[in-house]
Write the structure tokens for this entry.
Amino acid sequence: MARAVKTRRKALNTALAWAVGVLIFFPILWVVVLSFKTEGDAIKTPLEVLTAPWTVESYGVVQERSDYVKHFFNSVVISVGSTLLGLLVAVPAAWSMAFVPSKRTKDILMWMLSTKMLPAVGVLYPIYLLFIQLGLLDTRLGLVVVLMLINLPIIVWMLYTYFREIPGEILEAARMDGAGLREEILYVLTPMAVPGMASTVLLNVILAWNEAFWTLNLTAAKAGPLTAFIASYSSPEGLFYAKLSAASTMAIAPILILGWFSQKQLVRGLTFGAVK
Amino acid sequence: MFLKHTIRAVGAASVLMAGTAMAETITIATVNNGDMIRMQGLTDDFTKKTGIDVEWVTLEENVLRQRVTTDISTKGGAFDIMTIGMYETPIWGANGWLVPLDDLPESYDVEDILPAMRDGLSHDGTLYAAPFYGESSMLMYRTDLMEKAGLTMPEEPTWEFIREAARKMTDREHGINGICLRGKAGWGEGGAVITVVANSFGARWFDMDWNAQFDTPEWKEALTFFVDMMNESGPEGYATNGFNENLSLFQQGKCGMWMDATVAASFVTNPKDSTVADKVGFAMAPHKEGVSKKANWLWAWALAIPAGTQKEDAAKKFIEWATSKDYLALVASKEGWANVPPGTRKSLYENPEYGNIPFAQMTLKSILAADPKHCCEKPVPYTGIQFVAIPEFAGIATEVSQEFSAVYAGQQSVDEALAKAQALTNDAMEAAGYR
């Protein structure tokens, strides 16, 4: 009896989880469906859309009109570059805050997070002027730096949380065995924090990949990533939904595939501590 | 021997550098619409003629506006040509941000550009942007539904007639709305439509002392009429409908009439996308009985050169090419006259081949009816018809249109919205030093 109730509850939970999953994924699924329709069919009622013939016409047009490879390459460089650079800064910062905290560590962490609360447009002009002065406008390097700075609070916070769960005694033992700071971070701390670091890297790659304010405002013809690629198909005066959907599908496909293959690590990293 | 090699090396380097210098590249920021995309496809013709390469940055209209405004106001130099509208051009021209286009060659025939377009893209008589395509507003209607309603559409209908026709055409059971109009908040969306409707009721945004005019009977009559007509015969949820939503409804046969941009005519008559392509008629934008101004707006997407660009000459060459008579002929030869960017040159409308297109003459008539220097029945201190060409307008009009959209959604009354619009506009104008 109890087992039957348990099984029923499990089935209900599974059904509920699937329902929520489908609900969240539905807009993406619909974009993919529209991308395989003609512009004329894409604006019809949902049932008519589904029964309309399938075509890859929009992909052909997008491929012909835009340089997908260039935008894709820019996206990879910017998202991976900003994440790696962020790690370089964040690992020592999180280490010091986790293992040698001061009275103000909590305040510093909160202050770092508070920078995320500032609307990006508020600092658009100062950053734009700095970019002009430094010759960074429309360069991948400029975007790597800006996105690293924007995502740095999240990287530090995540790493700090993982590092805190590593018992200080292990590091102490390493020190007693004669490990210096470099060895301690590289050979003791990092291997133990790998799951946490992996999920931090993945999450930040996704955040940087999807970032659309700075990548649109600081680029022109050279460094525009896939967000600029999508933006070129959006129009308030003309129905180009099928082409826009095709461009969106092409832009999100790589990150969707990456997320699909790394979902285990991502979920584990986000839900468990470093050494559990 | 060493000297000989050095001379050779220097010579080779000079040749290489000369080659590099010759292959000049200009960067153009533009919007994503049919005519602009077509131009991108034809750029090879320009490169072949001049040896100048072109790089395109295509963005959605609102993103583009923010992007180019940031760049030009900071002298960023990211673009050599910017696609801007009739709203920005006179303001940026006055700020000294644009290169004057007062030395175009005789062969370009600047006099051929429609006077309304030239005026709207000039400041103090100097042209600052060359129109790539121009538009006004006009009424598109279903000829079959008009016939069914037992009515004949006059060439210059009044709002009273339109309301009556909309009522008769409405067939809720079959999902047909008598009239579709934009209600979406935003100065360029629903804000543009209600402004021209108000103009055609004798209203205006400001009097000659820059006092807001939303407390006048004309505005009250216009907004009340609009809301009543849309509640009677408009689509459900029209408060969030913009150009694209109405285009979609019309193409699917769900609108009896639609007043919007003249460029929509080519979309609704294209059998590939529209289910009613062969049943569309065109008329002038309506007006209230006794008011001479019709609900015509005027807009152009134009090409301008930001001051300070290092490639001014190359940019000018491109503008001359893209807005020339030859370019129109090039598009016609490749894609047919129906796909030529409309609304900029007189000669296009004198061309009998173009004149045969069903909406061509109505487009021209609508553009000619719009006068950006005299938008309204009463005198105004500003240029522009569906907008006021001052930097503060975009912000003010967006807020005002949000108040009006709240009326369309049934969240507040006409009187409440007008009172709020009056107060917020006067406050903003006072803060900006106009009053």
